[in-house]
Amino acid sequence: MTAPAAADSGPAIDVRGLVKRFGAKTVVDGFSIRVGHGRIHGFLGPNGSGKTTTIRMLCGLLTPDAGEGTCLGLDIRSQSAAIKRQVGYMTQKFSFWEDLSIAENLDFVARMYGLSDRKRRVADALERLGLGNRRRQLAGELSGGWKQRLALAACILHDPKLLLLDEPTAGVDPKARREFWDEIHALARDGLTVLVSTHYMDEAERCHAIAYLAYGRLMTEGTVDEVVARSGLHTWTIAGPDLGPLERELAGRPEVEMVAAFGARLHVSGSDGAALAAALAPLRGQPGLTVAEAEPTLEDVFIHLMNRSTDNFA
Amino acid sequence: MSARFSPARFLAILVKEFIQMRRDRLTFAMMVGIPIMQLVLFGFAINSDPKRLPTAVLAADQSVFARTIVAAMKNSGYFEIGRAVMDEAELGRLLAEGEVQFAVTIPAGFARDLQRGARPVLLVEADATDPAATSNAIAALMQVARTALDPELDGPLAHLKAGADPVDLRIHRRYNPEGITAYNVVPGLMGTILTMTMVIMTSLAVTRERERGTMENLLAMPVRPFEVMLGKIVPFILVGYVQVVIIVLAARVLFQVPIVGSLGLLSLVMILFIAANLAVGFTFSTVAKNQLQAMQMSFFFFLPSMLLSGFMFPFRGMPGWAQAIGEVLPLTHFLRIVRGILLKGNGWAEILPEIGPLLAFLVVVTVIALKRYRQTLD
């Protein structure tokens, strides 16, 4: 990976007011984002919130209906061919050729990008990802984790400056996910910018910054701490035996926006901290119950955002 | 769960199948469209007893007898007499190019010999590459030769009515003297097989990329539509040649079909025909949403190709509208080329008229394919 050149001093992604409609449905509605070089930017939001569509617009697979911007300093409308050469895009669904072997897939990609020292690059990629002894295996026979490794190897084969990953770890076991993210961080340290969509909170927490989309709109953006702080959400935990009836009771209270059971604990959250505290006050004295204020988790914040956006757009 | 047949479960499957059938509009359209197409083509377009076959006449004798014979041929309904031809070379060329089905030569001194009772020769050369197209006309011709002159044979010539025919009708079944159907069908198969496999294989090859999701990957890479199209098509051109070699060998070894013309010329022209079919397949693949639809569309193209090209039924037997459709189809022109080269020994000059329409078809379809092939996913 080469160090970012002087020309890359601007943001890697800088788009404003992107709109995409499919028929009468507006899938992305006035989306703007700036992502700095060498950053890992998480892309979160419920299913159908427009994450994939946005990523596809960024790499020139879809033409935005409105909006403008640049990707790696290149115009996303007029220079999509040049963008494609410098971007690695990993699709949500495994999209390499299952009837080609690992090495053949990589070799094909290398040829597509016209890489000069093709054989060496393919060999290096196989080596780096630990796929060397599986090179002759057909891609279709690989397990989910290996498929994902192959896809990543293929996406970074041409030394892209920007990596767009669309739910790269869906259906992959925790160890493979951990290794995948270690690799992503290693790439980012070398100057690669990464935009990654995910549904996993632990993955979101490994991003330098996150953006939350719902119904095609950007709801919030920033570091994990910023997003949590900005949510204005207050969370309490209640621990004790037999929380079932209590959970149902709390869910019906107007001050309580969400209640979720985590094993022997309830997470109770609401926007109005004082009202929530007051509502929970009677429980504090009850024997067997431990009631404590806690920091909202990212998941609490996202479900809160999701509920709110449903209200706004329903 | 009971092991017995459950009408409720059966009904559930039934309902689900109908819902899915209704959702797949194209399949539904095909299920209705293909029977309609077959009805129209078989019912209205196909006629195994072609009439009004184009006929050229070289009349070195302008007598009333010659004119009577020509008129009688016309009246039989089987012959459409075109312009008069001045020399034998032109007559030969018209037959070779397939512009006429019959060439009639009335020799000099026809009337004189007839009046002498010397039974002048009436030479009729038929393009018998397709025996089915000419057999009825030849039967009618024999009747003409026997009776057409009867009204003219009165007075001193009345005695000629008795005995042998007044003229010596000589029929030359050119290119296929024994009228062997295989001579016509086997070279024709070359075109039909190529049409079927080329269209289906390309339409599936591209649709498969979309169905499996690999198209998105391909589109995200810096590759141009023309590069994809060419790269997808060329392997099948090679497959097409393998098929051709098999058919030519079979034609030669199994069916003893004569190979009069140049195989080199044939393989050169073949590229054009194969490319035209591949472009059709590629165009289908840009429309079809899945491999099943691609198959159905290929079939929708294949059916008229087979029926209207002159492969199964004589081209000249079809009504004008069906011939017009046939003229558009690449198979029609390729059949004329391949039969011309293999059976008639045609060269460049004779096949040239068929190259133009093939080339035009290829260009138009390629442009459509490239326009339809989306570089983005919109």
Number of domains of chain A: 2
Low-confidence stretches of chain B: none
Task: Estimate the helix proportion of chain A, in percent.
Answer: 25-40%
Please give the alpha-carbon distance between the first and last residues of chain A: 46 Å
N-to-C order of helices and strands of chain B: HHEHEHEHEHEHHHHHHHH
The greatest interface here is: A-B, 22 and 13 residues
Radius of gyration of CA atoms of chain A, rounded to a whole number: 22 Å
Radius of gyration of chain B: 27 Å
- The chain-level mean pLDDT of chain A equals 88
Count of the separate structural domains of chain B: 2
β-strand number of chain A: 14
Biggest sheet, spatial arrangement of strands of chain B: 2-1-3-4-5
Class of secondary structure makeup of chain A: alpha/beta
> Which percent range describes the beta-strand content of chain B?
5-15%
How does the helix and strand content of chain B classify structurally?
alpha/beta
Largest sheet of chain A, in brief, is: 6 strands, mixed
Pfam family, one (chain A): ABC_tran
Keywords (chain A): ATP-binding, Nucleotide-binding
GO molecular function (chain A): ATP binding
Protein name (chain A): ABC transporter ATP-binding protein
Can you give a write-up of this model?
Chain B: Belongs to the ABC-2 integral membrane protein family. The complex is a heterodimer of chains A (314) and B (378). With 314 residues, chain A is α/β, with parallel strands linked by helices. Chain A has two domains: 6-10 and 37-56 and 80-212 and 221-227, Rossmann fold (3-Layer(aba) Sandwich), CATH 3.40.50.300; 234-295, 2-Layer Sandwich (Alpha-Beta Plaits), CATH 3.30.70.2070. Chain A has helices at residues 51-58, 80-86, 102-112, 118-128, 144-155, 174-189, 201-204, 224-230, 244-251, 273-284, 298-313; strands at residues 13-22, 25-35, 40-44, 66-71, 74-75, 87-90, 162-166, 193-197, 209-214, 217-222, 234-239, 258-262, 265-270, 290-294. Mean pLDDT of chain A is 88; it is low at 1-8. Chain B is of the alpha/beta class and 378 residues long. Chain B has two domains: 53-174, 3-Layer(aba) Sandwich (abc type-2 transporter like fold); 181-372, no CATH class. In chain B, helix 7 runs antiparallel to helix 13, helix 9 crosses helix 10 and helix 10 (263-287) packs parallel to helix 14. The radius of gyration of chain B is 27 Å and the shape is elongated. Chain A binds chain B through residues 56, 59-63, 80-81, 84-85, 87, 89, 91, 93-98, 109, 112-113, and chain B through 212-214, 216-217, 219-223, 376-378.
